[in-house]
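Progress against Task 2.4 (sequence-to-structure conversion) is shown through the following example record, which the project officer requested during the mid-term review.
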Amino acid sequence: MANQLKKEAVISGAGLVGSLWAIMLARRGYEVRVYERRPDFRNTGFAGGRSINLALSDRGWKALERAGVDELIREKAISMAGRMIHSQEGAQSFQPYGQEGQAIYSVSRSGLNLALVEAASAYPGVTFHFEHKCQGYQTEKGEVRFLHEASQKRIIERPALLFAADGAFSAVRAALTKQTRFNYSQQYLDYGYKELSIPPAPGGGHRLEPNALHIWPRGNFMLIALPNADGSFTCTLFLPFEGPVSFEGLTTDDLVMRFFRRHFPDALALMPELIQDFNGNPTASLVTVRCSPWHFRNQVLLMGDAAHAIVPFYGQGMNAGFEDCTLLDDLANKYQEDWGRIMPEFNRTRIADGNAIADLALRNFVEMRDLVADPKFQLRKEMEAWLAERYPKEFLPLYSMVSFSHIPYSRALAEGKAQDQLFESLLSIDQVQANWRTNPEVVRRFGAWVKGRG
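Structure tokens generated for the chain above:
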């Protein structure tokens, strides 16, 4: 039997997940009050310099479709069918992400956030309160407090339902960490990132292939670039904070230019504002957050980065947060909006997936940074595509499981580890690189692997 909670909710955070979830709740008839620390970016715009362009994949599109805003987003999304690898010498090679017609989509974080807030605001039951910083949640009283920093006015909410979508450094989660048996960890990479840019070509258009995610892999560091609808590319430099080749060594304009001339000469030729971008944008950190439980007294629920912040190397941070919304919406249907049943089941079934995508993202960092230029890795990718096309019922590559399906992340991670064993075996076949498409040993070992997995 459904509970008798009043149909209203408070959301802490008007970012991507918070604004999307506001839409889904509003479609169910809830009155939703959304509090956000930042100014109203519908009026002020967005502060740049800390944005890694987003890569929308199937999980994210499903959530946007559920909320009825997918067509609005598709208008400005750019398909990326694979990775374009840039060698030290400037040669380019393309690695497809999946089968013909499969792609991930580059979208602007700020543009997507703005579109979702505007869509949510169109519902009469949704109100946004900007410039209100969350000061935490009082577990004893069931109160969440917000401070309007300009006026110093405090607002105290005692919501029947509080959804914390307030990011990797969630103030709501910080209060829950004081509860008995709350597990929490955060792990920083020794790497930072800095946003850079490639402007549009003279007269408009893109200076690089627009339908690809560009990667300049250099072993211990890398540069990436994702296309924008205006012809520009948002670039991100991932580099250790400290060490022989690191941010700490790039202390002058001359050192920055030397670094790019040596490691990314073809990109440098397309970046006339490199020094301005490098000096003007912060060096940001990369953190993984794991915690449990994600709910408190069936009244408070952590979502998105507040529950499972991950590094960006699988392009799944936003997609995972959007999938949270889809799964919660499914559970609301299943249990007729009985949150006393919804929250525990979401907590029980979803945490393993949150931990799995965190592991997958860390794993993909090594792949992007170190492996994509390796001939052995490139051979594995060719074999994966061939097996997937020839044996579609028996084999689906890990990347396709994550980006082009709704298979739970935890299952995808387990399958990925099994695939590692398969390719360790296949790549050990003598002279396999010369005749793998016709080598009967490849088929035999693949068949044995399939049979062994039941």
